[in-house]
Structure formats: structure tokens, C-alpha cells
Amino acid sequence: MKCPRCDLPLNVSQRQSVEIDVCPQCRGVWLDRGELDKIVNRYEAYDAEDERSNYAEHQHHDTPKRKGFWQEFFY
Question: What is the pTM of this model?
């Protein structure tokens, strides 16, 4: 597939079982049908887990802080 902006071939990358297409020039991210829904579902699960860990963090101050959702997803 080609980038709609640059007309260059997109690089395909797998992130947490979600396939994303990234333009090597403009760094645009393109998703196929249903991929955004997968990301939203993962974010909601992350958010719920983060709420539980925040509660636990108040109980134990030495608990290491988690990365943010987008840092875990893209890096």
C-alpha cells in the first residue's frame, strides 16, 4: 500500500497484535479496517488496569510507575 500523502510504499509494523502502516517520509500512521477498534479496546483495558494499579500504588509506595499507553504501544 502507498501513503496517501507522499505516494511512497508504507512500512508495515506489528504493535501488540495490531498491524499499522507507517510512512517512512511523513511518519503518517495508517490503519486498516478494524485496527482502530482494536487499539481502543486495548486502551480501555489498559485504563482499567491502570486504575487498579493506581489504587495498589497508594497501598505500596515502592511500586514502579508504568509507562503510558502510547509509550507501551509504539515503543
Answer: 0.59
